[in-house]
Amino acid sequence: MAVQASVQAATPPQAPPAGATQPAFRQEASPSSPSPSLPTIPSPSPPESLPAAPQIASVQLPPPSPTPAPLPAASSPLQQSNAEATLPPEPPPPTKGAYKSIVFAKGMECGDQALEIGDLPTVEACDKVVANKEECGRYFMFSKSHPDWKCRCCSPFNEDNGPGSPAWDVYRAQYPRSQSLPALPPTPPPMNPFDGLPVSEKPRPSWLARKDELVVDGRATERGGIIILQAVLSDSHSTWGSKKVQKQKDRPDWLRAILATNRAHAEKHGHVMVLRAYPTEPQLTDWMIKECGRRTIQLCAKINERETYNWEKHLMMTDYLLSPQEFSHVLMLDADAALVQPQLDTLRRIAKILDDKNKALFLTDEDWLDANGKGRINGGLMYAKNTEFTRGLFQDTFAAHVAGHKLLKKGLTGVQDLRCTSNEQVCLNDLYYGGNNKYILPHTIMATGKRYNRGAERGGEAHLTDETTEIMHWMGGAKGTAGKALCSGYGRDLTFGGPQGYGCKSR
């Protein structure tokens, strides 16, 4: 079948208005010193069959993790707070008439609520009941202004990172836990962030970057080919699944359906699919820590979580463009997007478009949204041919994120004074439309999102059976409809696993 695609070679856009600023990159540095910096890690040598990247500038990237581990190494205060969490010593029980509440987190809720205990008039009354409830940890939440909202206890080790709420406070329990209840463990049980994800049961390949896991390798050869990357990083809002250990395997149906659909597509067309579930540490850059002021590292990480998780995509692109596996093309796809036309080998079709137009990078806009979306890059899909330009580009973007307000003075691609202190999508748009676009446009195609990255909202999902939409993206509130749509909603099961398979089985 001839490849028919609505794409445009990048043409020089209008210059930005005078005074427009450029985006900036994230720097990975240890927060243990006032002005830390990442160790300089030499970039892996590119495959012999591909041209070497020019050594224009030194790029600092986080060192790769050589082998997977049950828990991330505690190399930063944030990691130590997770890996070494222990129950504090029990305070002495309050003496009669001398109860004084201990506020642990003012204006906050529990990170996870274990039990709604009931209407109790005071903090002390709540504390007494918590001591006799097996489900409760050693912290609880209470609203003095609204005691009718009920006393609620936090589940063990989940008193932190709850949503802000001015009327609530989290308190430390002072009445000793009843001896008739099972003792709480001294440390939280380890959590495997890959629980509930469709990881291959075959031995883990040694070529995987950091702590990534293989989903499927459909190649007929040992090297080369096309790789699909998706990051599933558990956030504080439990978007990708509960952060509670006992519920980690219960991934949302929409996520399971999307991952199963992409797995089936990769297997059918001979591609590789890899997931990342461990965020690369340290997540915070020097400039992020500085901007957090006196906030704790843990709170700072939560505030910046969305940005740091999005920047992980550029780090993954770098990891696999430089992989010794010599992948010919690398696709970075948001974990709420799926290849929805199994009868079409979409990724080889796009590869042909790139070759025909002598381009190396394939991006899509948001023209499906409205007139303002046309020409605006959506960072949920990045498809790169493995070239000197693309290898340099994603090192440049990540290095600029790391440099922050200090700017990336000169990058591997020639970009100068690059600033990326917002998210990665803003950075790509600023590169494409800003003063550095002369380094980007000759290598880039801006394609229609209606075909290659269509949002499922605003009637977009109705195009699921239409070959004019090859990749569907369930952004934001549209996520909840993906499970039914991919499993049975449009007369076909795109996961190819049946109603009892990983992607479609009811939980």
Question: Can you describe what's shown?
Answer:
This protein has 507 residues and is α+β, with helices and mostly antiparallel strands. Helix content is 22%, strand content 16%. The strands form four sheets. An eight-stranded mixed beta sheet has the order 1-16-12-13-10-8-9-7, sandwiched between helices. A hairpin with a 5-residue loop joins strand 14 (408-410) and strand 15 (416-418). The longest helix is centred in the middle third of the chain and has 17 residues, at 253-269. The radius of gyration is 25 Å and the shape is globular. The protein starts with 6 loop residues before the first strand and ends in an 18-residue tail after the last helix.
Q: What does the overall shape look like?
A: globular
Mean pLDDT: 83
Structural class: alpha+beta
Number of strands: 18
Low-confidence blocks of residues = 1-59, 66-87
Query: What assembly state would you assign to the polypeptide chains in this entry?
Result: single chain
Strand order of the largest sheet: 1-16-12-13-10-8-9-7
What amount of the residues lies in strands? 15-25%
N-to-C SSE series?
A: EHEEHEEEEEHEHHHEEHEEHEEHEHEEH
Q: Could you describe the largest sheet, including whether it forms a barrel? A: 8 strands, mixed
Question: Which terms summarize this structure?
Answer:
alpha+beta, single chain, disordered N terminus, 8-stranded mixed sheet, 5-stranded antiparallel sheet, globular, 507 residues
